[in-house]
Amino acid sequence: MTTDEQYMTQALALAARGVGRTRPNPAVGCVIVRDGVVLGEGWHRQAGEAHAEVEALRLAGDARGATVYVSLEPCSHHGRTPPCADALVAAQVARVVVGTVDPNPDVSGRGIERLRAAGIEVVTGVLAQECRELNRPFFKFIQTATPWVVAKWAMTLDGKIASHSGHSRWVTGELARARVHQVRNELDAILVGAGTARADDPELTCRLPEGRNPVRVVLDSNLALDPALRVFATAGTLVFCAPSAPAWLEDRFKQRGAIIIRVPHTAAGLDLNAVLRELGQRDIMSVLVEGGGAVLGSFLDAGLIDRVMTFIAPKLVGGHSAPSPIGGEGISRMDQALHLSCVRHETLGDDLLIIGDVEEICSQV
Questions:
Q1: Which terminus of the chain has a smaller tally of CB atoms within 10 A, N or C?
Q2: CA–CA dist 19, 132 (Å, integer)
Q3: Quick check: 220 and 241 in contact, CB under 8 A?
Q4: Do 206 and 213 meet the contact criterion of CB atoms below 8 Å apart?
C-alpha cells in the first residue's frame, strides 16, 4: 500500500462514521498531512454542518504546504455551506488527493478544476472503488433521484423463511440479527409489505447502542392494517396505498402520526417506481426492503433491486407450503436469472451472509 493509499484509507474510516446520517449529502472523510504528520482530520456529520475538509482545516490550523486526502471531490458550489475547494485554496495547501469524482452535476470535476487553477497539485482515483462503494446510495440518488435498494432476507438452507405454520422466530442466530441492525443503522429507510407487518408485527427499528432508526415504510394498498401495530407506535411511518383506498381510513393512521401517500396501482400491485420516486423526494437515498416474499418478488420483477443480502441458517424446515423469500412472477428460463456481481460472504456464528450487487461496479472508478 502506497502512502497515498494509507492516508486515503484513514479518510475512508472517518467518512464511514457519517454513513446513514448525512442525507441528502454524501459521507466524506478528510485527512491533512505535512511532512508525515497528521495536522487535522474531519468527516461530514450531517447536512448543514461543516464538510469534512472544513472540519479538518479547522483542526489543522496552519495547513500551508500540506497534502489533503479527501474521499470525495471537494465541492465547488454554494449549498448549505460554502465551497470546500475555495477553503482549500485559501488555506494554501500544496496537494490534494481525491478518492473519486463527485457525480453531482453541480460539482463533477469543477472542484478539481478550481484547485488546479489555483496551482494546487491534484491526484485522483486513489482507492476509487472503495470510495465509490462507501457512497453507493448517494451515487444512485444524485443520478436518478431515487434511493438505492437493498433486498434482504433470512432463510434456512432449504430456502424457507418460515415453517408451514408461518412461525419464523428466529431463522438465524444473534450475530446475524445484530448484523441486520447494523444495516438498519446505515440505511435511510426500511420497507415491508402489509403481510409482513400483520404477521410479524415488527417495530422496524435499530437496536444498536446509539443506533439511528431508519424511516419506516409500509405498503398497504387498501389501508387494511391495524393502526395499533408496533410499526405505527411512533410518528413518521410512511404508508403507501392505492388511490382507491377509502379516504375515511386515513384518519386512523394519521392519529398515530403516520403519513399516507397514494401512488398508482397496477395489476402487479402498487407502482414501485412511484414509491421510490416519492421516497427520493423526501431525500431518502437508500431503502432496505425486508419483505415479505410478495414485496421482494415485486421489486425483483420490476428490476428495482441494487443489492441483495441473504442470511442463510444451517437449518432444514421442509414443507410444500412453507414460504420462500421471493414470490412474484419470476422467470421462465434459468438463463434469464438475475446474475449478481461482486459477490462476497461473511460468517456470522453458524450462519452465512451472502452479499451481491445487481449493477457491476467493482471495476468502475
A1: N
A2: 13
A3: yes
A4: yes
- CA–CA gap between residue 252 and residue 254 (Å, rounded): 6
As a whole number of angstroms, the distance between CA 319 and CA 237 comes to 35
Contact call for residues 168 and 193 (beta carbons, < 8 A): no
E strand or H helix that includes residue 40: strand 37-43
Q: Would residue 290 show up in a list of annotated catalytic residues for this protein?
A: no
3-state DSSP of 146-199: CCEEEEEEEEECCCCCCCCCCCCCCCCCHHHHHHHHHHHHHCCEEEEEHHHHHH
> What's the grid cell of residue 38?
497528521
CA atoms lying within 13 Å on the CB side of residue 92: 5
3-class secondary structure, 58: helix
- The answer to whether 12 and 134 have CB atoms below 8 angstroms apart is yes
Query: What tens digit of pLDDT does each residue of 26-48 get?
Result: 999 999 999 999 999 999 999 88
pTM higher than 0.70: yes
Q: In this structure, what C-alpha cell is assigned to residue 9?
A: 484509507
Phi-psi region of 262 (alpha: psi -120 to 50; beta: other; left: phi over 0): beta
Q: Which neighbouring-strand residues pair with 75?
A: none
Check if the beta carbon of residue 226 is closer than 8 Å to that of residue 207.
Answer: no
Region of 293 on the Ramachandran plot (φ > 0 left; ψ -120 to 50 alpha; else beta)? alpha
Residue 182 and residue 67: Cα distance in Å, rounded? Answer: 33
Alpha carbons 300 and 327: distance in angstroms, whole number: 9
Helix (H, G, I), strand (E, B) or coil at 288: strand
pLDDT digits (tens, 9 = 90+) for 95-136: 999 999 998 887 888 999 999 999 999 999 999 999 999 999
